[in-house]
Amino acid sequence: MPTPCYISIEGESQGLITAGAMSVDS
Predict the structure, then answer these.
(1) Distances in whole angstroms, Cα of residue 10 to Cα of each of 7, 19, 23, 25, 26
(2) How far apart are CA 7 and CA 20, in angstroms?
(3) Which of 4, 25, 24 is CA-nearest to residue 12?
(4) Angle 9-7-15 (CA atoms, 0-180°, nearest 5)?
(5) DSSP string over 1-26
(6) pTM greater than the 0.70 cutoff
(7) What is the largest distance, in Å, between two alpha-carbon atoms of the chain?
(8) For residue range 1-26, what is the model confidence (pLDDT) as tens digits?
(9) pLDDT value at position 6?
């Protein structure tokens, strides 16, 4: 796995994508 910084960015991006998907789905 890359650096923890990458993981933080990845997690934040996934959170935003998930939130957007859930909002649209709702």
Answers:
(1) 5, 14, 20, 22, 24
(2) 20
(3) 4
(4) 55
(5) ---HHHHHHHHHHHHHHHHHHHHHH-
(6) no
(7) 34
(8) 566 666 666 667 777 777 776 766 65
(9) 63
